[in-house]
Write a structure and sequence with these properties.
Layout: H1 9-19, E1 24-30, E2 33-38, H2 39-55, E3 63-67, H3 72-83, E4 87-91, H4 97-106, E5 109-114, H5 117-125, E6 135-138, E7 152-154, H6 155-168, H7 172-179, E8 185-190, E9 200-204, H8 205-219, E10 226-228, H9 236-249, E11 252-255, H10 262-269, E12 273-275, H11 278-293, H12 297-319, H13 325-345, E13 353-356, H14 363-371, E14 376-380, E15 390-391, E16 404-405, E17 409-413, E18 418-423, E19 429-430, H15 434-440, E20 447-455, E21 461-466, E22 471-472, E23 478-479, H16 481-489, E24 494-500, E25 507-513, H17 515-524, H18 532-536, H19 539-556, E26 567-572, H20 592-598, H21 600-607, E27 612-620, E28 626-634, E29 636-637, H22 645-648
Parallel strand pairs: 1-11, 3-4, 3-5, 5-6, 6-7, 10-11, 12-13, 13-14, 25-26
Antiparallel strand pairs: 1-2, 8-9, 9-19, 14-15, 15-16, 17-18, 18-20, 20-21, 22-23, 24-25, 26-29, 27-28
């Protein structure tokens, strides 16, 4: 197989179709039944879609929009565009129509694939702002029978056009694929836009395939592996796993029936390779915790005992470290009675490699999964580095780091502790933004990540916070909000947190509770509630959150670097922070400046010494309507602790 630097995604696809034609490339659960595309079928579908697009005028250099849940035909549509020298532009499927306009306009999208009626409706809603968008193709025809089909076609019709075009021009497709260069842009992925308009990150075939091959080499991934594709296609992580690593290794990409059935579908497929952001692992553990709290006394006692065994030796066994015979026997019993059934419940019975990235993951959460035999590791990167800057190798897993540089990558620490990255997976440029490209990549070829971090003695990277968010308190001591927020989110009852303290005398916090976990906690204590606002405002819930913060403060007091950064006052927000309300990005990162401005009265209440504050807030419902919610929020004090001797030294 040609090296990464001289090949493209379509060429690799055709090679798989020759080398393993009957191996499954994609599976999709549709109407309760798993449908399979072999590598040969996938290549044939890509040929038909590409020829269909060409027959309608799609040419080299054009952009193809993709919006919908993870579907084999959508991945194949991206490969079809790349076969013709085009560029794939995936969009977030949960974005509202108005958010899509900017990306579609900026990327000059003329052709688009939409999964179903919901996504078609979004495109039609803003069609008057999209003069260049001439053709929209849909996968699911339900609800679309009476639509104006002038520029709207089912994918079957497009593929039929492609079959006819291929029959009339049998050498066309292969000739177009042969024209492709590894330095061609294969995808434009838009950044989350936490501080402004999203930027289009142009990644080439060489950069993406380089990242895919390097990651596969680290974990010896091959065509016998299975992975579950359920994360947004517009996110770089999905492109790395479901496209780049799939093409690099030949493993099977499995698409669940819907986002709501992922857990059940995982149990049926039993993936060997898995990726999820920390919030998904937190949610899974929360569901386990809730179930065990409701379990009988004997079952709960057995769970608690064997989880103690797992905490003591599970991670050591996974890493091949020496463990005493007694613990080995106890762990084997635990695997039989607890760990095995638990992994099966989580859909992780066959997983041999699992990853997390995007946010920090709590040590306790990390240890939990590794202790029950799930080989959970971390990787680190940005859209601009194909999410491939650092990766943890087997036997070198540290809970407080994101690993060492990935194969073909270099890391160094610049001014203000900023992490700088260069290597095989770096972006080519920001689309139509030479100014931003020049600002982000220095004269030595290093990309400035904007993250603050340190390298330990083993060359492993530890991320502290966003460099721009690291500031000082009024006392002159370091304030790193993300570090504190992540520690808070390690508690199962806390879903989101925003902390404040720059240039201030003490640290305050907004808290979002986890509605499912806290709701279950309340029900077991016969605490009535009618919804999120009612539950969040309950004094018992405030005490529950206060206890979590107090525990975090006590733990922080033992840390040398940030032991002073303990929370003194907090409030529980009356609504969940939401991407639809512009408080979070689509990748669920806090838009800190927006939140500070929107909830300024609450911040003033925390730092003005008030005990409560009335707030009325606009919210956007799923159908686009704007409503208002209001509540009087209690501002509570929480104990802080003197620095422990080791931290103060």
């Amino acid at each position: 197989m040609p090296t990464t630097t001289e090949t493209t995604f379509p060429r690799v696809l055709l090679q798989h179709a020759q080398q393993r034609p009957e191996r499954p490339a994609y599976r999709e659960k549709y109407l309760g039944i798993w449908q399979t595309d072999t590598w040969k079928q996938a290549a044939d579908n890509v040929r038909k879609i590409a020829c269909g697009l060409a027959s309608l005028g799609f040419q080299r250099g054009m952009s193809l929009g993709i919006v919908g849940d993870n579907r084999p035909h959508l991945y194949q549509a991206m490969l079809a565009a790349q076969s013709l020298g085009g560029v794939a532009v995936p969009l977030y499927q949960d974005a509202v129509a108005a958010e899509m306009v900017y990306v579609l306009q900026d990327a000059e999208v003329q052709f688009a694939f939409a999964e179903d009626q919901e996504q078609v409706d979004k495109l039609l809603e803003v069609s008057d702002q999209l003069a260049n968008l001439h053709n929209v193709f849909y996968l699911d025809p339900r609800g679309l029978r009476n639509y104006d089909h002038g520029h709207l076609k089912p994918i079957e019709e497009l593929m039929e056009l492609g079959s006819q075009y291929n029959a009339a021009h049998p050498e066309f497709f292969d000739a177009e694929v042969a024209k492709g260069q590894s330095t061609d842009v294969c995808v434009i992925l838009y950044t989350s836009g936490t501080t402004g308009r999203p930027k289009g990150v142009c990644q080439t075939h060489a950069s993406m395939l380089g990242a895919g091959r390097g990651a596969c080499e680290v974990d010896s991934l091959n065509d016998q592996d299975d992975m579950m594709a359920y994360l947004p296609m517009a996110w770089v992580g999905d492109f790395l796993f479901s496209m780049a690593q799939c093409m690099a290794s030949g493993f099977t990409v499995n698409c669940p029936e819907s986002r709501d059935t992922v857990s059940a579908d995982m149990k049926e497929i039993g993936p060997t390779y898995y990726f999820a952001p920390p919030r998904v692992y937190e949610g899974l553990l929360t569901s386990v915790t809730i179930r065990m709290e409701d379990a009988g006394r004997i079952k709960k006692s057995m769970y608690d005992y064997f989880m103690g065994v797992a905490a003591r030796c599970g991670a050591d066994l996974l890493d091949g470290h020496p463990v005493g015979m007694t613990d080995r026997l106890l762990y084997a019993l635990g695997r039989l009675f607890v760990f095995g059934p638990l992994r099966n419940t989580l859909g992780m019975s066959r997983i041999r490699v699992a990853y997390t990235a995007g946010e920090a993951i709590g040590p306790d959460l990390f240890k939990f999964y590794r202790s029950i035999g799930v080989n959970l590791k971390q990787l680190y990167g940005q859209t601009e580095s194909c999410a491939y800057a650092c990766i943890q190798r087997d036997g070198q897993v540290k809970y407080d780091s994101v690993g060492s540089p990935s194969p073909g990558m270099e890391i160094k620490i610049g001014e203000n502790s900023e992490v700088l990255v260069r290597g095989v997976s770096l972006l080519k440029e920001y689309y139509k933004r030479p100014d931003a490209t020049a600002e982000a990549i220095d004269s030595e070829g290093y990309f400035h990540t904007g993250d603050a971090g340190v390298l330990d003695n083993d060359g492993h990277l530890r991320i502290i916070d966003r460099a721009k968010d690291v500031s000082k308190m009024a006392s002159g001591k370091v304030f790193a909000p993300k570090y504190i927020e992540n520690k808070l989110k390690f508690f199962s009852y806390i879903k989101e947190a925003v902390v404040f303290g720059a240039d201030r005398d003490f640290i305050g916090a907004f808290i979002n509770i986890d509605f499912e976990a806290v709701g279950n906690w309340a029900e077991r204590r016969n605490i009535p509630y009618s919804g999120y606002i009612d539950l969040a405002g309950n004094p018992a819930v405030s005490k529950l959150v206060s206890d979590c913060i107090e525990k975090m403060n006590r733990e922080l007091s033992g840390e040398k670097m940030l032991g002073h950064a303990q929370i003194s006052r907090f409030l529980v927000l009356h609504k969940e922070l939401d991407p639809d309300d512009d408080e979070l990005t689509r990748t669920r990162k806090v838009r800190r400046g927006f939140v500070e401005e929107k909830y300024k009265p609450l911040i003033q209440a925390i730092y003005g010494g008030l005990s409560e504050q009335f707030i009325e807030t606009d919210v956007r419902f799923e159908d686009g309507r704007i409503g208002r919610v209001s509540a009087t929020l209690k501002v509570l004090d929480v104990p802080t602790f003197a620095l422990q001797k080791e931290a103060a030294a």
